[in-house]
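In the design runs reported in the main text, the only information available to the sequence generator was the tokenized backbone. The following block is the verbatim input for one such run; it is reproduced so that readers can re-run the procedure and compare outputs position by position.
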């Protein structure tokens, strides 16, 4: 499923301090209060998970942070810079990228083409340069292909470079989606249910991949996941939500024994 890669050119290093901070986030849909006063601080180089029962508001928090929703109130900062209410395109441009619960690839394009399209912000965008195939344009194109091949290698997908993304096995589609995020050189990688649809062995390999992305690529990871084995195995801290509200934050050990968390998941007699 994966290979042991070399470090790519311009690989980011892990910074220090708080990478992403969410302060008192609230999201209303008409009369429905979907998220109520959620705060979290993702440290640089940290793997942080958000968990909770279905309908707890986890994905709504993700949608607010990644710019798909404009929050009703609260503040979102990326290394001290206010990104609250920015569009998803602008948030991605600041280095916060995400996957989705349902894989969103260009399924009619090859795996390689998906990674080239993801680099449109980095490859020379001048239509004149493209029309006349200037040296600068050709260099940028070659570098884009080099980066795409690096990430295909990293994910163990090099042999599938020319296969249509929609025809890849589901687990490989998941890896390609993560590669498409990573090729943009993000500061924060947001993973929405990355283990959904994977078999037990693929889940084990996914955990190793997430850990390598943090240590080898210097990315901070914010994770939503229902698979508790993965969450407890990979996360350094966990936020638990219920009915849109935060009920506990702590290490996996603290969360596992927290009575409020047990009640939220198992209920009371």
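Verbatim output:
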């Amino acid at each position: 499923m994966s290979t042991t890669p070399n470090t790519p050119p311009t690989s980011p290093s892990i910074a220090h301090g708080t990478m992403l901070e969410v302060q008192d986030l609230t999201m209303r849909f008409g009369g429905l209060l979907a998220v109520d006063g959620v705060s979290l601080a993702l440290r640089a180089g940290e793997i942080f998970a958000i968990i909770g029962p279905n309908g707890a508001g986890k994905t709504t928090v993700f949608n607010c942070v990644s710019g798909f929703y404009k929050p009703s109130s609260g503040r979102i900062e990326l290394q001290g810079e206010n990104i609250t209410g920015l569009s998803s395109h602008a948030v991605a441009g600041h280095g916060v990228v995400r996957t989705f619960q349902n894989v969103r690839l260009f399924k009619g394009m090859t795996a390689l083409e998906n990674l080239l399209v993801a680099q449109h912000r980095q490859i020379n965008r001048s239509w004149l340069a493209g029309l006349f195939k200037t040296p600068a344009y050709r260099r940028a194109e070659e570098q884009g292909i080099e980066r795409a091949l690096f990430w295909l290698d990293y994910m163990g997908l090099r042999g599938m470079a020319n296969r249509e993304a929609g025809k890849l096995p589901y687990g490989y589609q998941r890896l390609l989606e993560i590669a498409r995020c990573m090729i943009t050189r993000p500061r924060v990688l947001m993973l929405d249910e990355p283990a959904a649809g994977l078999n037990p062995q693929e889940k084990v390999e996914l955990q190793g991949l997430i850990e390598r992305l943090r240590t080898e690529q210097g990315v901070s990871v914010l994770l939503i996941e229902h698979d508790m084995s993965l969450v407890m195995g990979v996360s350094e801290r966990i936020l638990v939500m219920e009915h849109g509200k935060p009920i506990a934050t702590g290490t996996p050990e603290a969360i596992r024994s927290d009575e409020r968390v047990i009640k939220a998941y198992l209920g009371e007699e």
